[in-house]
Amino acid sequence: MFPGLFYVKVVFSMDDATVFMLKKGQTSISNLLLENYTDLGLNDGEFLLLLMLMKFDQQKEDVDLEALSKMMGKTDAEIGTLLNNLIVKKVVELRTVIDASGRQRDCYDLSFLYEKLVQIVKNQLRTRSQKQETATKEQVFDSFQKEFGRPLSSIELEEIRCWMEEDGYSPEIILLALKEAVLSQAYNFKYIDRILISWEKQNVHSAMDVQRVKDQREEKKTNRKKKKGNANRPKIPLSHWSGVDKDA
After folding, report:
1. pLDDT, tens digit, 9 for 90 and up, residues 23-38
2. Rounded to an integer, what distance in angstroms lies between the CA atom of residue 97 and that of residue 53?
3. Residues near 157 by beta carbon (within 8 Å), at least 6 away in sequence
4. 40 with 96, same domain?
5. Is residue 139 one of the residues assigned to a domain?
6. Number of H helices, E strands in the chain
7. What is the predicted pLDDT for the residue at 231?
8. CA angle 74, 76, 77 (to 5 degrees)
9. Which residues form the DnaD N-terminal domain (predicted)?
10. Which of 115, 122, 186, 238 is a Cys-bridge partner for 191, taking CB atoms 3.0 to 4.6 Å apart?
11. Spatial contact of 88 and 51, defined as CB atoms under 8 Å apart
12. How many domains is the chain partitioned into structurally?
């Protein structure tokens, strides 16, 4: 009897704990913020307070400074200093709003924070793109030196740079032009430049486009050979194979 009662009490207690946890809810935190809060100029204390403000914001609650002091184990003055730091660093903005009952109250707007996070993403993507572009340019230079079997001169390096930066040719199309020149045993920058100009006129911007032009060229050659063969084929009088003279 007693074990049964004890078991019931334990289950009831666990249910209460579960309900309590569910009522407390959860605070969603961006990994981008976790990984880059120091880039926002925040120290650990300011970051922790920011997380607390996010908690209040997501749960649609007014910021309780007394509760903040207890949760963070800091005095009201210390909390005030941290809040001021977040405002000065333009991570949060203190605004006065009018609630549904027409009363004015202060709230901490996190819009600045999200704008800064968006800017961090843009900067990271820009940096990644620049690194990839630099790596691709290096690949072009290395490929030319490998195929030419010697270091490139400063004039040749400048020519490649102009192709990419001034003429707007992609590294991919330049490498394809180099390949065409190598296949033709023409290790000549002027020859490669003529290929690029010709491809530009034909709207060639990728390996698929190059193949398209090759296929069209081969098709034209085949058609010319067929026409030439038909033109050179001797005309046989009808009577030669039918046994009947058409004039008879």
Report:
1. 666 777 888 898 899 9
2. 17
3. 141
4. yes
5. yes
6. 11, 2
7. 63
8. 100
9. 29-124
10. 186
11. no
12. 2
Q: What's the mean pLDDT in 60-65?
A: 82
Residues 102 and 147 in one domain: no
- The CATH number assigned to the domain holding 136 equals 1.10.10.630
Domain boundary among the residues 109, 143, 175 is at 109
Structural domain that includes position 43: 28-109
**CA–CA separation, 56 vs 63, rounded Å?**
6
Radius of gyration of the chain measured on its C-alpha atoms: 38
Q: How much is the pLDDT for 224?
A: 78
Q: What SS3 state is found at 96?
A: strand
pLDDT digit string, tens, across residues 99-110? 777 777 778 888
Evaluate whether residue 89 is within a structural domain.
yes
Q: Which pTM was predicted?
A: 0.50
The two tokens of residue 67 are 């509760």
